[in-house]
């Protein structure tokens, strides 16, 4: 073969490789997006159904506090382990089995002890929320940590070898098991305890299924990734690297999930604090703080919808960035970053904009009228989640590039800012609110007659209403202050991570894409201003009918969003070719 022939073949090989990568990436995104969409469907059944099935916002608030608290640790376990295993496996697929075995041993001395500490610390955790009744539920939920510790290893392996379809299959199975377990036990009459137990059972079953399946898959991959001769110290070095990387990712994930939940935790904690002049109202304050947590937790679920879509992107882009930076291919890394930001921004800005502009209608259609106090918070959170989703993508890219310590520092700054601002803003509202409350507890007294007993009970109930009524009226202010604090912290984190990527890779979302999206959102605002959907229509058309109207309006706005982008030439031939490559048979 001549030199000229070699030069001619090389670019063709590079083009073929790029096309194959685009095809596999696109298909990986589609299947994982499909799994995440199913996750959102099952999550909607849980989050929209439980307020009805449990019978009150207070009980739903208890469920949210318990599950959000355990999720703070769960997500640390699953994300840290998954990304650590995925990165090492994607860099050296021939050593995948060794990485998995080392990770399993590591979790015996990391995951299980963390679960045990969480269980033993359940009384202290409940005390931070000023609600000792949470102790047993928190202790039960600790089992989820142990199951997640090992489940994450198996998902990380599949992600590292780019088995996206199999990874998506596990996601779908787990989401289904969780929905059936949680909702099923609640419907059988086991209440909040049943909901938590259903979560625990689903985590245990998927851990077993994934373990058996992955070990079978690794046997078939032995031929695809044949073992290579390694230095005698290679396994020890790999374990050291795995441990170091895992710890950093766990710290990062703790900060990430703390950022997602700081507002809810601070809201519950601060609103349950009883000032000295209202002594005796502890039970009532706990009840109302759980109600506020239920309201706020409900809108958090809706606001996080765009974030769920972005998770699919990060699952696909992480091993690609890891591989390209490991090979020191700067141009490919830069292209990945630009394309990822562009497509993520197009996805989440559209969805986030629709949620923000239709917040009051969405709340009115999905929940009872008392949840309307959280409508303004939903509008604010729908904007904040746009920044957060892009922030999450940016820090995932930074970690994939082998710089987890940078992601840890940036995320820690955001968490500290969120916690501090939330405490400041929510506490300010609380101080102003309780200062205006004037109440003297009325104790139930013995009565000589049944009629007297009834009158006493009515008097005590009215006494509590006199306090609860003015307090509940301030709910919107509490939730708005938490949402604003969270938005500021998420924006700052996004800005810091974007600046780091620009400095190191010269890559970010194309400026003209941002301009076109702002123009499209402006068009949506105009439509929303002209077409109002009064919440009073719920009584006239019923919830299903009203939701249908809301869905129709949002669908029309979504179509307008795409039309404006097409008219402004945001989408071109390159995008069309990518779509063809993804859906093509070859």
Question: Quick recap of the structure?
Answer:
The protein is an all-alpha fold and 586 residues long. 85% of the residues lie in helices and 0% in strands.
| Helix/strand structural class | mainly alpha
Order of helices and strands: HHHHHHHHHHHHHHHHHHH
Mean pLDDT: 82
Radius of gyration: 26 Å
Q: Tell me, what's the shape?
A: globular
What is the percent of helical residues? over 70%
The total of helices stands at 19
Q: How many beta-strand elements? A: 0
Biggest sheet record: none
- Through-space gap between termini: 29 Å
* Poorly predicted segments: 1-13
How much of the polypeptide forms β-strand, as a percent range? under 5%
Report on the structure:
With 586 residues, this protein is mostly helical. It has helices at residues 3-53, 57-91, 96-108, 111-120, 122-128, 135-160, 164-224, 234-271, 282-303, 305-326, 330-357, 359-366, 375-400, 404-435, 450-473, 475-505, 511-530, 537-567, 573-583. Helix 2 packs parallel to helix 6 (135-160), helix 10 (305-326) runs parallel beside helix 13 (375-400) and helix 13 (375-400) packs antiparallel against helix 14 (404-435). The model is unreliable at 1-13 (pLDDT under 50).
């Amino acid at each position: 073969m001549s030199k000229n022939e070699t030069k001619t073949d090389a670019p063709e090989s590079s083009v073929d490789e790029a096309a194959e990568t685009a095809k596999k990436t696109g298909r990986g995104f589609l299947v994982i997006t499909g799994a995440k969409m199913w996750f959102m469907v099952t999550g909607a059944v849980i989050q929209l159904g439980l307020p009805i099935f449990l019978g009150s916002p207070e009980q739903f608030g208890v469920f949210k506090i318990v599950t959000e608290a355990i999720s703070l640790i769960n997500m640390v376990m699953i994300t840290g382990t998954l990304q650590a295993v995925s990165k090492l496996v994607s860099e050296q697929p021939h050593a995948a089995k060794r990485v998995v075995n080392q990770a399993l041993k590591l979790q015996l001395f990391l995951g299980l002890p963390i679960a045990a500490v969480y269980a033993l610390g359940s009384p202290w955790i409940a005390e931070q929320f000023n609600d000792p009744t949470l102790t047993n539920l928190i202790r039960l939920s600790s089992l989820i940590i142990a199951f997640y510790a090992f489940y994450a290893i198996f998902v990380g392996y599949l992600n590292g070898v780019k088995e996206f379809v199999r990874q998506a299959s596990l996601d779908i199975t787990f989401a289904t098991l969780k929905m059936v377990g949680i909702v099923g036990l609640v419907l059988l009459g086991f209440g909040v305890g049943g909901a938590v137990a259903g979560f625990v059972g689903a985590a245990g079953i998927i851990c077993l299924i994934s373990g058996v399946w992955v070990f079978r898959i690794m046997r078939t991959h032995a031929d695809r990734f044949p073992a290579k001769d390694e230095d005698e110290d290679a396994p020890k070095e790999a374990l050291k690297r795995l441990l170091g990387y895992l710890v950093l990712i766990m710290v990062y994930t703790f900060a990430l999930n703390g950022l997602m939940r700081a507002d809810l935790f601070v809201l519950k904690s601060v609103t349950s604090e009883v000032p000295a002049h209202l002594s005796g109202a502890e039970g009532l304050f706990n009840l109302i703080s759980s109600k506020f947590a239920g309201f706020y937790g409900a809108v958090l679920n809706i606001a996080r919808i765009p974030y769920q879509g972005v998770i699919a992107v990060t699952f696909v882009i992480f091993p690609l960035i890891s591989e390209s930076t490991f090979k020191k291919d700067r141009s490919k890394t830069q292209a990945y970053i630009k394309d990822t930001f562009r497509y993520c921004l197009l996805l989440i800005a559209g969805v986030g904009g629709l949620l923000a502009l239709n917040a009051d209608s969405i709340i009115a259609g999905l929940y009872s009228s008392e949840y309307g106090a959280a409508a303004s918070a939903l509008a604010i959170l729908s904007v904040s989640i746009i920044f957060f989703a892009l922030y999450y993508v940016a820090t995932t890219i930074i970690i994939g590039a082998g710089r987890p310590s940078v992601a840890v520092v940036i995320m820690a700054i955001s968490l500290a800012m969120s916690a501090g601002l939330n405490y400041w803003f929510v506490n300010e509202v609380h101080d102003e609110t309780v200062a205006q409350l004037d109440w003297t507890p009325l104790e139930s007294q013995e009565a000589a007659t049944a009629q007297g007993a009834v009158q006493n009970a009515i008097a005590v109930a009215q006494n509590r209403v006199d306090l609860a009524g003015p307090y509940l009226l301030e709910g919107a202010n509490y939730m708005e202050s938490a949402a604003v604090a969270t938005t500021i912290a998420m924006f700052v984190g996004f800005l810091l991570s974007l600046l780091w990527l620009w400095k190191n890779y010269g890559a970010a979302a194309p400026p003209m894409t941002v301009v076109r999206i702002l123009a499209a959102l402006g068009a949506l605002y105009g439509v929303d201003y002209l077409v109002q959907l009064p919440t009073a229509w719920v009584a006239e058309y019923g919830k299903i009918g009203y939701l249908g109207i809301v869905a129709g309006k949002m669908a029309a706005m979504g179509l307008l969003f795409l039309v404006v982008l097409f008219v402004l030439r945001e989408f071109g031939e390159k995008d069309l070719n990518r779509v063809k490559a993804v859906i093509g048979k070859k």
